[in-house]
């Protein structure tokens, strides 16, 4: 476990719904990147995404501080990127009653890195639903995503929408709610990160993209949670959705390039 990292205990974002916090870059990079997952203590408890592998010990401990391993019934993976699958094998091993909610392409793309077999899978596509006993969750793809397998997750009973990679933002210090961020830093940061995540936005049809944002707005979410954002709550939900609409075509700083890498290498004395 990284002892230099500021550890934030899980925070309650809605009734029986908790954000499990993690982040990267503290003490190393100019900004931090949130790396969260979520737990819904529905009648059949659900873990939503599983963090990065190098934080697995922390993530698993935080999840099990909220729900007993034997009680976890569903482990929902939004897509197969490493920052969402980091503890999937550990959780499936430690949670004997859990079913892994993925989709066909995710299992193909993960291949042999996915250790549990098809007898423990459930395939759920965008637009389909998952009955978790006391509520029915909806798989809804966010407007901005970086894997063809991506589905977010909406809980109509709490109004919480898990956005996967969408609404990603940098943060300067560990943060639990976007309301703690400077609003301009936040909204421009989302434009920057979401543009990096989805460079295909520049070739997407504008009207059709806006309809994908309409779909999220129509859910009328009360809280937006995601892997790479502090909780988006209150009036900031509408601000986040409005900001999403302007991201295709937004002018953002270029991502770090070779010159930046060489600066880093010089600071490490790798390059003379
Ligand atoms: Fe991703
Ligand atoms: Fe991600």
Question: Can you walk me through this structure?
Answer:
With 272 residues, the chain is α/β, with parallel strands linked by helices. It has one domain: Ribonuclease Z/Hydroxyacylglutathione hydrolase-like (Metallo-beta-lactamase, Chain A, 4-Layer Sandwich), CATH 3.60.15. It contains 8 helices and 15 strands. The two termini are 33 Å apart. The protein binds fe (ii) ion (2 copies). The site of one fe (ii) ion (FE2) has 5 residues, from loops. The site of one fe (ii) ion (FE2) has 6 residues, from helix 2.
Through-space gap between termini? 33 Å
State the major sheet. 7 strands, mixed
The CATH topology, please? Metallo-beta-lactamase, Chain A
Unreliable runs, pLDDT <50, ≥5 residues?
none
- How many domains make up the coordinates? 1
Tell me the overall shape.
globular
Strand elements, count: 15
- Helix run count: 8
What's the SSE pattern? EEEEEEHEHHEHEEEEEHHEEHH
Radius of gyration, CA atoms, in whole angstroms: 18 Å
User: What compounds are bound to the protein?
Assistant: fe (ii) ion
Short description:
With 272 residues, the protein is of the alpha/beta class.
Write the layout of secondary structure elements.
Blueprint: E1 11-14, E2 17-20, E3 23-24, E4 33-34, E5 37-40, E6 46-48, H1 56-66, E7 74-76, H2 82-85, H3 88-94, E8 99-102, H4 104-110, E9 121-123, E10 129-131, E11 136-140, E12 152-155, E13 160-162, H5 183-197, H6 206-218, E14 223-226, E15 229-233, H7 236-245, H8 258-267
Parallel strand pairs: 6-7, 7-8, 8-9, 13-14
Antiparallel strand pairs: 1-2, 2-5, 3-4, 5-6, 10-11, 11-12, 12-13, 14-15
Helix pairs in contact: 6-7
Bound molecules: fe (ii) ion (2 copies).
């Amino acid at each position: 476990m990284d002892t230099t990292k500021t550890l934030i205990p899980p925070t309650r974002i809605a009734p029986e719904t908790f954000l499990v916090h993690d982040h990267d870059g503290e003490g190393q990079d100019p900004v931090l990147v949130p790396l969260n997952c979520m737990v819904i203590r529905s009648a059949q408890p659900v873990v939503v995404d599983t963090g990065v592998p190098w934080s697995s010990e922390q993530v698993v401990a935080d999840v099990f501080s909220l729900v007993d391993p034997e009680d976890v019934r569903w482990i929902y993976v939004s897509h197969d990127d490493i920052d969402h699958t980091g503890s999937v094998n550990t959780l499936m091993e430690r949670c004997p009653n859990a079913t892994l909610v993925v989709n066909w392409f995710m299992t193909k793309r993960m291949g042999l890195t996915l250790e549990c077999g098809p007898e423990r899978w459930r395939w759920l596509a965008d637009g389909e639903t998952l009955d978790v006993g006391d509520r029915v969750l909806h798989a809804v793809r966010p407007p901005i995503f970086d894997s063809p397998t991506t589905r977010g997750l909406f809980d109509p009973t709490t109004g919480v929408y898990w956005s996967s990679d969408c609404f990603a933002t940098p943060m300067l210090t560990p943060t639990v709610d976007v309301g703690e961020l400077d609003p301009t830093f936040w909204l421009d940061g989302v434009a920057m990160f979401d543009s990096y995540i989805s460079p295909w936005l520049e070739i997407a049809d504008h009207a059709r993209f806006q309809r994908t944002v309409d779909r999220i707005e129509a859910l009328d979410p009360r809280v937006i949670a995601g892997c790479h954002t502090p909780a988006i709550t209150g009036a900031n939900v509408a601000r986040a959705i409005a900001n999403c609409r302007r991201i295709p075509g937004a002018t953002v700083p270029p991502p770090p390039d070779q010159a930046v890498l060489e600066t880093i290498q010089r600071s490490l004395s790798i390059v003379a």
